[in-house]
């Protein structure tokens, strides 16, 4: 006979509490203290061997550190099989798809599932705790497992937070040297991009617009980023960013405004292809009479870019897109760059494998190519 629902709920809560007490009792005598991104002081074991990564992008950072083999389970986004996937860290680690699940994506953890994992994680690493998912203090209390919070940051004004996240995570998993290598890698490539284009006079910089940018899902061509990082790195004149605030990361621009701007070069975030053949940015560029008036459309100056907003920011794809954009806008400054090879060099360093061909194939081979505007 099935047990009443309220009894089952009380039993699960009791088991969770008992498990937490047992885990607390098992904390080793040799421990150390980590200060996380929220300023919380968290006691963790000296020698951490097993972790889980909760929240958007958290497992990506662990992969950058080469410590992905330390995870004992994944959130449910990692086991999904879809037509499109623009996460290089996941493509480089297909074993994630067969691992145990500890909760739902975007940080919606399941304490009861976590307590059933074998081996048990010694630390839970967690991103985006102020905007979504399980409260870190409550999760720590329910599981008895230390929760270390990270600020995912970005490659713009929040680059210091991104670097801090790498350093905090590295301190937990013992990959401090690798964290400094990754930080130096981003700094050197961003400096290289900026140095190649810094001396180009303002009046010689083509005007640009990117449409179809993903933001918690796919969008049509009016979806853009006023402070699109690859444009910033190569000093492109992003028309959507003129007069926009430095923190305005996403915007929907009126189609009439795009027509009025008539940018010299257009880019298409291929995330928009998720909307299907009869919708999305590519379909709109091909069929909408308003877009047909744009000079860049008429001259076939529309280029496909890798999606980078895919379970938060794929930092390697930001760099890869920037090198391709630089090659399109200023070919004489990027004569030594072959964009696909550059992308694979970036991915090999960050995630351990050259995954550009696999990812590009999912998006119809349109990445780093002129987009065909006839059907």
From TrEMBL:
Coiled coil: none annotated. InterPro entries: ABC_Transporter_SBP (IPR050902), ABC_transptr_periplasmic_BD (IPR002491). Residues 50-333 form the Fe/B12 periplasmic-binding domain. It comes from the Bacteria. Keywords: Signal. Residues 1-31 form the signal peptide. This is Iron ABC transporter substrate-binding protein. Pfam families: Peripla_BP_2. CDD domains: HemV-2 (cd01147). Transmembrane segments: none annotated.
């Amino acid at each position: 006979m099935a047990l009443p629902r309220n009894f089952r709920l009380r039993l699960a809560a009791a088991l969770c509490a008992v498990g937490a007490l047992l885990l607390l009792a098992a904390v080793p005598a040799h421990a150390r203290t980590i200060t996380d991104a929220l300023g919380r002081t968290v006691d963790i074991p000296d020698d951490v061997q097993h972790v889980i990564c909760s929240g958007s992008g958290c497992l990506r950072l662990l992969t950058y550190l080469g410590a992905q083999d330390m995870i004992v389970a994944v959130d449910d986004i990692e086991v999904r099989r879809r037509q499109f996937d623009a996460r290089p860290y996941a493509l480089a680690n297909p074993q994630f798809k067969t691992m145990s699940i500890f909760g739902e994506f975007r940080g919606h953890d399941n304490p009861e599932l976590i307590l059933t994992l074998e081996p048990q994680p010694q630390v839970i690493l967690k991103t985006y705790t102020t905007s979504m998912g399980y409260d870190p203090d409550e999760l720590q209390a329910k599981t008895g497992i230390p929760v270390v919070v990270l600020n995912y940051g970005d490659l713009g004004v929040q680059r210091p937070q991104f670097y801090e996240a790498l350093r905090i995570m590295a301190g937990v998993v013992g990959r401090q040297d690798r964290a400094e290598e990754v930080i130096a890698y981003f700094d050197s490539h961003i400096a290289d991009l900026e140095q190649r284009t810094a001396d180009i006079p303002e009046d010689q910089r083509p005007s640009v617009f990117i449409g179809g940018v993903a933001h918690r899902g796919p969008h049509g061509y009016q979806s853009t980023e006023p402070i699109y990082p690859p444009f910033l790195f190569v000093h492109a004149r992003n028309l959507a960013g003129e007069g926009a605030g430095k923190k305005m990361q996403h915007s929907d621009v009126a189609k009439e405004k795009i027509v009025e701007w008539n940018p010299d070069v257009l880019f298409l975030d291929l995330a928009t292809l998720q909307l299907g053949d009869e919708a999305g940015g590519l379909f709109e560029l091909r069929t909408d009479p308003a877009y047909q008036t744009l000079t860049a459309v008429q001259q076939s100056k529309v280029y496909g870019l890798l999606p980078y907003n895919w379970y938060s920011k794929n930092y390697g794809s930001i760099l890869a897109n920037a090198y391709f954009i630089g090659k399109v806008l200023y070919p004489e400054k990027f004569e030594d760059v072959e964009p696909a090879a550059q992308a694979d060099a970036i991915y090999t360093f960050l995630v351990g494998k050259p995954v550009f061909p696999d990812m590009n194939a999912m998006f119809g081979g349109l990445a780093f190519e002129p987009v065909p505007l006839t059907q």
